[in-house]
């Protein structure tokens, strides 16, 4: 098959999507995904993640820009692309009166080179539910059925729209392991998620979308590197921020005080934490509720979402 | 690894099989589709006995059978399929199917197949029943009757997709098929043969979608159908089918409105 494993399996250039009412959901985005990579689209509700993924799946034609999936336009060249992709929509889409096995059999009949249904159901832990009607499945079980069907044709490219929404912690971890294993086997995965932890754990690269645009993109480490780390603690009665060593010397860039609680932000976490702890040791001060944490995706995400909320209050909510 | 590549036929078969299972589990649809078309012809029979049929060269049998075929197409195929298309759309099944290898036409065709087959079986059963119970003789020009029935099945499936394009929910799918069903029952020669209507009214009724089917089935049995009349009926049915396909391509919604 394709020799160059660094080829771009998905290429998106200046992509736009406009809905019937004139709402511009995707406003000119560019990114590409290499073979065997997990790429995550993160964003607030209404950021345009699902709108983007549906265009990549070829469900609708873009209002502007260009998409190439495996070298083809997924909308106009449907027949060339579909046998090589697997899709998990954000919501089920199964007749509620069919059983799990009947649903899988139906889908298998529509997929070239389908694996045995039992095999994929076992892969997602649904082998004991084969005779159960879809309407009797829990939300998490339905997500897993959807994943099983997306995997039926051993796709080269997998689109997963919020694959773990509604799953419990264990189910989520199982799905992560499965998706990682697929990636290790050479499958290219594009997923959207609300869960920052999911993107941090799973994604090789990610993009954070906001209001139809990509606000930031890179590896999880690159995206978080631009964010400061945080130190939070409570000062005992009788001590004030002024009693701490000069904050600038500790490498602290910002601080805020809220009653007894002190929050510090720094780009040099080790220096700041060491300076603070050495001071506390010498002064015999107990720093209660001490919390030291590196910059995380959550910081980057909230920063982007917050930047937005000052402009448009309507998009303030962020789901995690 | 041996790879089985799907074909349009294999994909539609897989879909049709699932739809057939679903049809078997939907009691309401099943009753409406299976029993109503078998019961309604009885009321036509009593009406037919009061008409002056001999003058128009008709018998109770050649009035009841075309009407029965019409009922079957309207209830078992048209009305049932409006419900199937709308409910599958609301369940996001159509959207799901469109992410795969199935083409749009295959999705609608495969979903329509079980209802169309039931309609076909029902019509054959009704023909046999009418022959036995109403002393209906063997058809004089069976090819017109068969052509009329097959055109009717395809057209009703296509019309159902058009109606589904303008139907939002499963509940409204029980109402939106009504106009065409009522118009057809009154105007397509099902209760009252067009031969018994004033000429001007009859010529308007001739262009209704189900009229050519009734005309072809009746003409197939009586043998009174001239070639030009028969071809005119075929053209009308084909025109309605093509118009429906065009309308579906333009207006059919694959996802619920948000």
Automatic annotation (TrEMBL), chain B:
On the tree of life, the source organism's domain of life is Bacteria
Please tell me one Gene Ontology term that the record gives under cellular component. membrane
Question: Is Zinc there in the keyword field?
Answer: no
Q: InterPro entries, alphabetically?
A: ABC-2_transporter, ABC2_TM
**One function term, GO molecular function aspect:** ABC-type transporter activity
Compartments annotated for it: namely: Membrane
* UniProt entry keywords in alphabetical sequence: Membrane, Transmembrane, Transmembrane helix
Q: How does it sit in the membrane?
A: Multi-pass membrane protein
Q: What are the ABC-2 type transporter transmembrane domain coordinates in residue numbering?
A: 13-219
TM region(s), chain numbering:
64-87, 107-134, 146-166, 178-194, 230-248
Query: Which PANTHER family does the entry mention?
Result: DOXORUBICIN RESISTANCE ABC TRANSPORTER PERMEASE PROTEIN DRRC-RELATED (PTHR43027), TRANSPORT PERMEASE PROTEIN (PTHR43027:SF2)
**Protein name in UniProt:** ABC-2 type transport system permease protein
């Amino acid at each position: 098959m394709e020799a160059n494993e660094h080829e771009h399996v998905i290429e998106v250039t200046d992509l736009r999507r406009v809905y019937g009412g004139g709402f511009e959901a995707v406003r000119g985005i560019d990114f590409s995904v290499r073979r065997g990579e997990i790429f995550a689209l993160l964003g607030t509700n209404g950021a345009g993640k699902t709108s983007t993924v549906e265009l990549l799946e070829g469900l609708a034609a873009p209002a502007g820009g260009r998409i190439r999936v495996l070298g083809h336009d997924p909308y106009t060249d449907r027949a060339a692309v579909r046998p090589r992709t697997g899709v998990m929509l954000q919501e089920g889409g199964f007749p509620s009166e069919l059983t799990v096995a009947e649903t899988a059999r139906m889908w298998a009949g529509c997929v070239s080179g389908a694996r045995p249904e039992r095999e994929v159901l076992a892969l997602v832990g649904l082998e004991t539910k084969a005779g159960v009607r879809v309407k009797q499945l829990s939300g998490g079980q339905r997500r897993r059925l959807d994943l099983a069907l997306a995997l039926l044709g051993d796709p080269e490219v997998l689109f997963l729209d919020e694959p773990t929404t509604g799953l419990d912690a264990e189910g989520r971890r199982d799905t992560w392991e499965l998706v990682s294993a697929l990636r290790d086997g050479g499958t290219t995965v594009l997923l959207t998620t609300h869960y920052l932890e999911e993107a941090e754990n799973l994604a090789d690269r990610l993009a954070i979308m906001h209001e139809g645009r990509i606000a930031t993109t890179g590896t999880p480490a690159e995206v978080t590197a631009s964010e400061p780390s945080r130190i939070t603690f409570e000062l005992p009665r009788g001590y004030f921020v002024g009693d701490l060593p000069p904050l600038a010397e500790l490498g602290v860039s910002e601080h805020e005080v809220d009653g007894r609680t002190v929050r510090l932000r720094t780009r040099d976490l080790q220096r700041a934490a060491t300076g603070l702890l050495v001071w506390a040791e010498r002064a015999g001060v107990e720093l209660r509720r001490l919390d030291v944490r590196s910059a995380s995706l959550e910081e980057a995400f909230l920063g982007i979402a917050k930047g937005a909320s000052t402009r448009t209050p309507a998009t303030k909510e962020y789901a995690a | 690894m041996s790879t089985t590549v799907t074909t349009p036929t294999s994909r539609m078969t897989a879909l049709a099989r699932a739809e057939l299972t679903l049809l078997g589990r939907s009691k309401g649809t099943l009753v409406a589709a299976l029993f109503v078309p078998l019961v309604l012809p009885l009321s036509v029979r009593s009406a037919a006995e009061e008409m002056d049929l001999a003058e128009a060269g008709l018998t109770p049998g050649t009035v009841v059978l075309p009407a029965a075929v019409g009922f079957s197409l309207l209830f078992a195929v048209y009305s049932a399929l409006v419900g199937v298309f709308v409910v599958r759309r609301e369940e996001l099944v159509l959207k799901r199917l469109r992410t795969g290898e199935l083409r749009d036409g295959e999705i609608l065709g495969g979903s329509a197949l079980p209802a169309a087959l039931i309609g076909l079986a029902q019509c054959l059963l009704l023909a046999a029943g009418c022959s036995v119970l109403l002393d209906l003789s063997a058809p004089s020009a069976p090819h017109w009757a068969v052509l009329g029935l097959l055109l009717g099945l395809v057209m009703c499936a296509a019309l159902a997709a058009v109606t589904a394009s303008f139907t939002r929910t499963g509940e409204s799918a029980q109402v939106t098929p009504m106009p065409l069903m009522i118009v057809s029952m009154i105007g397509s020669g099902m209760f009252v043969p067009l031969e018994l209507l004033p000429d001007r009214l009859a010529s308007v009724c001739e262009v209704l979608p189900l009229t050519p089917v009734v005309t072809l089935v009746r003409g197939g049995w009586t043998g009174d159908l001239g070639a030009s009349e028969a071809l005119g009926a075929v053209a009308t049915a084909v025109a309605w089918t093509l118009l429906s396909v065009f309308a579906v391509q333009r207006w059919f919604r694959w996802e619920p409105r948000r």
